[in-house]
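## retry 2 of 3
previous attempt timed out at serialization; input unchanged, resubmitting
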Amino acid sequence: MNPTQQPLSEPKIADLLRRMPEWALEDGKLVRYWTFADFSKAMDFVDHVARLAEQEGHHPDIDIRYNRVKLALVSHDAGGITQRDADMARQLDNDGLTT
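## retry succeeded, writing output
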């Protein structure tokens, strides 16, 4: 199995969460919430996430509630959070998307 597809250890996940404080661990997934000015802005963000996910071949769980978006990252095929999830979370943080 490719190393990026192996589940991260608990210490590595804890370190990741220390370095990325807007993300949390919920039900075995990396989770982050974004709140936007309105539904349209939330959907613009979701469109951005969709393009990134297609490019990476790795798709987050997305929950949209009017102007609030929740993303959950986990590699179902690997049975946990992998480096792919960490990389996608980091990419989303680095994209500079404003809420």
